Amino acid sequence: MEYYLSTEQMSVGYGGVPVLEHVEIGVRPGEILTLIGPNGSGKSTILKSMIGQLRLLAGTVVIDGRPLSGMREQELSQKLSIVMTERLRAELMTCWDVAATGRYPYTGRLGLLSAEDRRKVDEAIRMVHAEDYAESAFSQISDGQRQRLLLARAICQEPEVVVLDEPTSFLDIRHKLEVLEILKTMAREKRMAVIMSLHELDLAQKISDRVVCIAHRRVDRVGTPEEIFRDDYIMKLYGIEKGSYNALFGCVEMAPAAGEPSVFVIAGGGSGIGLYRQLQQKNIAFAAGILQENDLDYPVARALAARLISVPPYALPDISVLEEAKKIMKQCGAVICRTKVFGEGNRANQELLAFAREQGLCKAPGAVPR
Q1: In degrees rounded to 5, what are phi and psi of residue 148?
Q2: How many CA atoms lie within 13 A of 8 on its CB side?
């Protein structure tokens, strides 16, 4: 399928000085394309250049097979809708009025709305679930509600492409999810091509069909979320030196506490994750084990533990692994067990718990040293 909006050898920047050169990306109908990358890498510059807010230093932006620069404003407005981060000044307008501005490319010089225009405004407001405050002053609603109304305006415009710069900025998690769900609906049901920038990697991983990575004054990589969101690549892309990124969970972890471990944690099946993070927050180095490498606890333990005793997926620890764990336990001097049930696969941890009790090392399950 051909791209509906694409760039050809595009160079962008300010004052004649390029920020990125030879940018070639494109988005298809019904597709969500997301730009990610470090602050200052040029994501917003690319978007502003694609929509004509910044003059291109070189290259071309093509929409529906035609250069954007050669299109009349009204025609372009019927093909392209823009939701940027700049605040909209609408002190005397209701929310309905703001959404209705999306119909102006179709109303002629007088800007009069027909009955059909009004129907489409109402439909768009229902689509973003903003009926309850449609008649409220736009200047008096929350950031999340404003973002919904700006999406309603884009829907009213009936474009082929929607371009958004950080649409989830300043929103709480509920409104972030609601906005992205609306964008997904616009892409899937309306067949709009969606291109946007996002800072939240966990959301970009879940909403995107394809991802464009911007770094080092260039498009560094383009691919599906499965191709892009890998621990080693994301850490390289963002230059992460303290802490780590976990592609499996779509989250970051802080750097582990320094020093020798003073607590040994027996856990598994996700039961240890909260404790691992508590210990890290209190700057307490800890050891963890024995974990199979496919255990839910393993990725976080690998990121945060000073010592980790593990075995391959589905493998049972041999006597040498068990003895190593006991040795580290004694060195730590304190053991916290978060596991309540021991199956055949973690009998070794049951033995470790019995050993810790014999040695007087056990702390209460909820205990965290101060």
Answers
A1: -60, -45
A2: 11
The residue type at 221: R
Write the pLDDT tens digit of every residue in 141-163: 888 888 889 889 988 998 999 99
Give the C-alpha separation, 210 to 199, whole Å. Answer: 15
Mean pLDDT of 52-56: 90
pLDDT digits (tens, 9 = 90+) for 171-184: 889 889 988 999 99
Q: Would you state the torsion angle of the CA atoms of residues 191, 193, 196, 198, taken in this order, to the nearest 10 degrees? A: 50
Q: Amino acid identity, residue 124?
A: A
Phi and psi, residue 46, nearest 5°: -60, -50
Token couple for 251:
């989250």
Distances, alpha carbon 165 to alpha carbons 8, 33, 182, 309, in Å = 21, 12, 15, 44
Report domain extents, the chain: 5-241, 254-358
User: In the chain, where do the E strands start and end?
Assistant: 5-14, 17-23, 26-27, 32-36, 58-63, 66-67, 80-83, 161-165, 193-197, 210-215, 218-223, 244-246, 251-253, 263-266, 286-292, 307-311, 335-337
Extract the tokens encoding 45: 């510059």
Under CATH, which architecture does the 254-358 domain have?
Answer: 3-Layer(aba) Sandwich (3.40)
Helix (H) or strand (E) holding 173: helix 173-190
d(CA 102, CA 77): 9
For 266, residues 6+ apart whose C-beta sits below 8 A from its C-beta are: 272, 289, 335, 336, 337, 338, 339, 349, 352, 353, 356
CATH class of 5-241: alpha beta
